[in-house]
Write a sequence for this structure.
């Protein structure tokens, strides 16, 4: 399958595994790239030395295209950027900050740049900043979200009208059916987080994976709007946060409730009741842990099956 995204990144399939904190290490990213998609390392949970190690492991584990997801809100961002350039990382996905800040520097180093947005307004700013592609993420996605609360099905066609950039859809996508729907709305690839967060190769704790594959369809909700809107599972920590928010808790009060590294506690250490279980709405569609290659193969097969069925429909 060829789209502007597959041509831009040199990949065989328009499937991208999101670079998720505490999940997307070299094992997961290289497995997705080796299966024909684009694997991303999740720099958001890595210190400089850790990211350096994972980049070196990526180079040893795949000869196919790969990249790094780099949130731009951390104190070490300048050092992380320098590390990516020194290692000649081919592709970088930026988020949680202005696309203008580092795009030209990455381009000067020969790197491709995509930026994650939650609205068509921010997509236009990405085009002005000169990025190569834009990831439009609906608020069905797990983890940190935009404040607009736009669903993926609403967001993608609006972004498609607002910009001519190659477009990647994200949020609520975990199957061949949802991939076909995203492409029908104007996307040229899909980025999936939740389904790969629960893959065999994900760095997430087994307790986190087993907890998530048992969750029902109403298990997640957007919370922490006074800090940074975050979709998380409704566990014991969430219940306390929701109660505090209903009583007008301040941002500082919420920070104190969360404690140190709440996402790490849940995802990496397996404390699924007292940690921040960042996971997307589509988690209810996932009932087993599979390898990245199995996930990619299933998505491609289901996509083709549904595409052929749709081709037979006549109005």
């Amino acid at each position: 399958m060829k789209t502007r995204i597959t041509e831009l990144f040199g990949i065989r399939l328009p499937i991208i595994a999101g670079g998720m904190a505490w999940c997307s290490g070299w094992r997961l990213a290289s497995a997705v790239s080796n299966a024909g998609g684009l694997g991303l390392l999740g720099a958001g949970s890595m210190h400089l030395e850790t990211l350096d190690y994972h980049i070196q492991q990526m180079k040893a584990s795949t000869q196919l295209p790969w990249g790094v997801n780099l949130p731009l809100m951390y104190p070490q961002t300048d050092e992380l950027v320098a590390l990516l350039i020194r290692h000649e990382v081919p592709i970088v996905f930026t988020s949680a900050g202005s696309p203008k800040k580092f795009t030209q520097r990455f381009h000067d180093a020969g790197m491709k740049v995509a930026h994650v947005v939650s609205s068509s307004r921010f997509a236009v700013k990405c085009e002005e900043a000169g990025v190569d592609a834009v990831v439009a993420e609906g608020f069905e996605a797990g983890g940190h979200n935009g404040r607009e609360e736009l669903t993926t099905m609403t967001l993608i066609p609006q972004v498609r009208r607002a910009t001519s950039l190659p477009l990647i859809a994200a949020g609520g996508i975990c199957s061949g059916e949802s991939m076909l729907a995203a492409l029908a709305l104007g996307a040229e690839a899909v980025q999936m987080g939740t389904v790969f967060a629960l893959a065999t190769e994900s760095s997430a704790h087994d307790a986190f994976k087993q907890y998530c594959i048992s969750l029902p369809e109403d298990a997640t909700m957007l919370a922490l709007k006074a800090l940074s809107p975050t979709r998380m599972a409704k566990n014991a920590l969430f219940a306390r946060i929701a109660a505090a928010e209903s009583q007008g808790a301040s941002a500082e009060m919420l920070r104190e409730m969360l404690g140190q590294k709440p996402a790490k506690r849940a995802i990496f250490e397996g404390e699924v009741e007292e940690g921040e279980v960042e996971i997307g709405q589509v988690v209810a569609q996932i009932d087993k842990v599979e390898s990245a290659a199995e996930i990619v193969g299933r998505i491609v097969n289901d996509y083709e099956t549904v595409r052929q069925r749709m081709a037979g429909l006549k109005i």
About this structure: The first strand starts at residue 15 and ends at 17. The mean pLDDT is 95. Residues 19 and 42 are 4 Å apart (CA to CA).
